[in-house]
């Protein structure tokens, strides 16, 4: 797609590398899910406060936030709290499975959204986009196959080494 459109997808590359780095750091840290989420929240709080301060100084602030109903305000505040639960569950799960599996699973949500967009909402999907999508999934298939093959080899070796020490039945 880069060649077709003639533009390097800097935002996509930044997101891919930053999320991979984030996942690696999360995996290497020896902190519980709750502690990790607390640290992340504390690190992001100053940026959020700076943004709110900047937003408050904008001339359109009152139009955007003061004029909405109290119920909507509480729903927005509650939405922040509700999103903490999936983040916590993700952090717990991420510590229990290999990083490669996390990476693979991260492709599921965008793929499902793509399929919903194409088949339910009839979004256009060009041949170039299909080719890019195909390359991604072929790469994932090759990666998954190699991981599965390596896992089977390790399992066979472990199984054979465990049975060498067992006494033979007469």
From TrEMBL:
Per its record, how is this protein called by name? EamA domain-containing protein
Keyword Transmembrane helix in annotation: yes
> How is it placed in the membrane, per its record?
Multi-pass membrane protein
Kindly list the residue ranges recorded as spanning the membrane: 6-25, 37-56, 71-92, 99-121, 127-146
Q: Which UniProt keywords apply?
A: Membrane, Transmembrane, Transmembrane helix
The cellular location(s) given in this protein's UniProt record come to:
Endomembrane system
Q: Does the keyword NADP apply?
A: no
The record ties this protein, via InterPro entries, to: EamA_dom, EmrE-like
Q: Describe the location of the EamA domain by residue ranges.
A: 11-144
State the family named in the UniProt similarity comment for this chain: Belongs to the EamA transporter family.
Pull one GO CC term from this UniProt entry. Answer: membrane
């Amino acid at each position: 797609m880069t060649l077709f459109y003639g533009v390097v997808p800097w935002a996509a590359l930044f997101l891919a590398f930053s999320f991979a780095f984030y996942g690696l750091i999360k995996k290497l840290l020896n902190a519980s899910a709750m502690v990790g989420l607390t640290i992340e929240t504390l690190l992001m709080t100053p940026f959020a406060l700076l943004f709110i301060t900047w937003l408050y100084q904008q001339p359109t602030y009152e139009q955007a936030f003061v004029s909405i109903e109290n119920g909507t305000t509480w729903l927005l505040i509650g939405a922040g709290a509700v999103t903490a639960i999936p983040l916590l569950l993700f952090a717990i799960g991420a510590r229990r499975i290999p990083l490669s599996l996390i990476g693979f699973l991260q492709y599921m949500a965008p793929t499902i959204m793509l399929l919903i967009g194409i088949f339910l909402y009839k979004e256009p999907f060009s041949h170039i986009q299909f080719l890019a999508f195909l390359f991604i999934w072929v790469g994932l298939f090759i990666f998954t196959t190699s991981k599965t093959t390596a896992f089977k080899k390790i399992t066979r070796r472990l199984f054979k080494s465990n049975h060498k020490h067992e006494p033979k039945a007469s």
